[in-house]
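Reviewer 2 asked us to include a model.

Predict the structure of this chain.
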Amino acid sequence: MNKGLNRFAILVAGATFCLIIAGALVTSHDAGLATSDWPLSNGQFFPKMVGNLFWEHGHRMVATTVGLLTIGLLIYLRVREKRQWVRRLGVFALLAVIAQGLLGGLTVKLMLPLPVSAAHATLAQLFFCTTVSVAVFTSRSWMEARALPVEEKGTVPLRYVCTAALVAIFLQLIIGATLRHSATWDQHMPAGLILAHIGGALAVVVALGSATLTVLRRHNGQNFLTRPATLALMLLIIQLFLGVAAYITRLHSPSDPQPLNPMVSITVAHVACGALVFATTIVLTLRVFKVLHGPVLGVVPVARAEVRSLDSFQTPAGMLR
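Predicted model (structure tokens):
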């Protein structure tokens, strides 16, 4: 393990989280077309940042910083990381941030088309979770983790429950991104998308609630699993309250003279918390795959020594080894 590499990966993940917040501020302030130029702003690298240009160009500056940090992360991985599959994850992160920048440019050049804007927001969440995964894989806790001396319990293996929660959250993020970009602050949001988002929230509550409570019940005392499970459950509860508050404030925004601070701040907090729920669930899922072993192909449990020999197949990323 390289402590410096892990700390730099955490820095990149933290900067990416700030970028998600910056992007949400652009959308909430309806500042996406504060300038029609890209990558320049009003023909300048450093324009006078007044009005909505403060949010739009500020977002671009944060995005540029994240892009440079991602390049630095890839170089750091190539120099210090011995595991080939982790290096490849760094390459994927760089490709993702490049694609993210291009999608951001298209949103401006094409005048904020809904499919491109929603894809831009969704890819931001995926890139964030990629950087979080790199931070997890380079951490001391991951390196020192050992398979628990227990087999998977219950009818449905915990790894499947966590994976289902991840899928539910990802689909909910897509719906949420589509909903946010379907109408500006002075327009009412489509009722169909609102109902879909509410239905997605219920699905996430069931899936993630089942995953976290199952971890806490089956593996009490195993901090490697219970800590991310507890954090994910707490964030889910906060997210539900933020979702209700965001809906209430957004419901009245069409009658406001401009995007007001209560609506902006609550909506941005809802987006940020959603990213944290997704990232925490990914950490939980990766750790479950790391330390829990189930029956091979659903037939019979294998011996501990045999399971250890399959260590490279314990995580989805392990398939790249």
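Confidence is low (pLDDT under 50) at residues 296-321. Residues 148 and 291 are 6 Å apart (CA to CA). We have added this to the supplementary material.
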